[in-house]
Amino acid sequence: MWFMKTLLIGLILLVGLSYGGAKAYLHYKVSDGMDAAVMGMEPYAKLEYGGISSTLTGELTIDDVKIQVKGFGDNIVIGHLGINTPSFLSLLSFSNLSAGPQALNDGAPEYFGIIAENIKVPASADYYRRIYDKNIEQLAPADIRQRGVQCVGKYGFSPRTLAALGYDELVISTSVTLRQAETHFITEMNFDVVDMVDVEIEASMAGDLMSGAAMGASYQPRMRSLQIEITDQSLNKRVEKYCTELGLTPEQILRAHLNALQYFGKKNHIEFDKYVIDPYKEYLAGKSKLIVTAKPRKPLDLARIKKY
Predict the structure, then answer these.
(1) In DSSP terms, which residues pair with 175 in a beta bridge?
(2) How far apart are CA 94 and CA 181, in angstroms?
(3) CA proximity to 82, closest of 117, 109, 47
C-alpha cells in the first residue's frame, strides 16, 4: 500500500513537472515571437501586452494587448488574442512550426481557430473616425445626408450615430475555426458586438483543407452548404427609436432598411429575392433571429456564387 501510494504521488509529480516545463517552453517561444513582432511593428505602431496564457484544453492567448498606430492618439485594446486547438499537445506542435511543416508529423489537428476577444473601440476613437471618413470619401454617396441613410447605417455607423444609438464603446469578440471532416471541411465564423448583434456563419466546403492550402492562389474552393444566423441584441430597437426621433415614419424606416440591404447586395453582386426580404422584414419587426441558408444541389464554385 505504501509503495503504491508513493508511486502514485511520484507519477502525479512527474506529470505536473512535465506539463509545467512544456508550458514554460511554450510561453518562452511565444514571448520570443512577440518580442520580434514588437520590434517589427515599431516603425508603424507601438505594441504592448500584459502576458501569455495557455490551457490544457488547447487555447493560447496574448492578453491585454494595446496597439497605438503612428499618427493616432487612441489605442486599439484587445483583451485576448490567440489560437484555439484540440489540446495542449496541439499547441506544442504549432510552436514548432518554425522548423517547417514536418513539425506536424502526426497530421493537422482536428480543428484550428483564431480568436480575438473584448476588442474595445470607443465611438469617439480617432482611428474609427478616420476609417469611417475615408470610406465615405471613397464612396462619395449622393444620399449620405439623408436621415434614413444615417440612422440605419447604410454605409456604416458614423461616430455621431453610434453615440445617438447609445454605444459609447463597442466591445467586439470574433473567432474563425477550421474543422476537417472526412470528405469536406467546415469554416465557422462568429462576430459578436455586445448589446448590438451576434453573427454566426458556418460554411461547408468540399475537399481537403491542407491540400487546398498547398495549392495557394490557384485553389478554387467549392461550397456544399452555408448558414448565416444573425441574432439581434438590441440594435434594431435602438435604430427604430433613433430614426423615429429624427422624424421618420415606420414606413420610411422600413424603406431605409431595405434600401441599405439592396445596397449591400449590389456591392457584393447578390440580388435578394422575397425568400430573404420577407424574413428580413420579420426580423426588423421584432423577430430576434434571421437565418439565411444556401444548399446547392452539388458543390458550387465560389466564383459562380453570385449566379446561384
Answers:
(1) 115, 190
(2) 20
(3) 117
Torsion angle of the four alpha carbons 227, 233, 239, 245, in this order, in degrees rounded to the nearest 10: 160
- The CA distance from 113 to 176, in Å, is 5
Q: Which of 19, 14, 86, 77 is nearest to 48 (CA)?
A: 77
Amino acid at 255: R
Distance CA 157, CA 123 (A): 10
Largest distance between two CA atoms of the chain: 85
Is 44 a residue whose pLDDT tops 70?
Answer: yes
This prediction has a pTM of 0.81
Coil, helix or strand for 164? Answer: helix
Q: 3-class secondary structure for 106-118?
A: CCCCCEEEEEEEE
Give the pairing type, strands 169-180 and 111-122.
antiparallel
| Sequence-distant (≥ 6) Cβ neighbours of residue 194 within 8 angstroms | 170, 171, 172, 233
Q: Which of 157, 156, 219 is nearest to 185 (CA)?
A: 219
What is the predicted pLDDT for the residue at 308? 60
Locate 99 and state its grid cell: 522548423
Four-point Cα dihedral 203, 259, 126, 79, nearest 10? -30
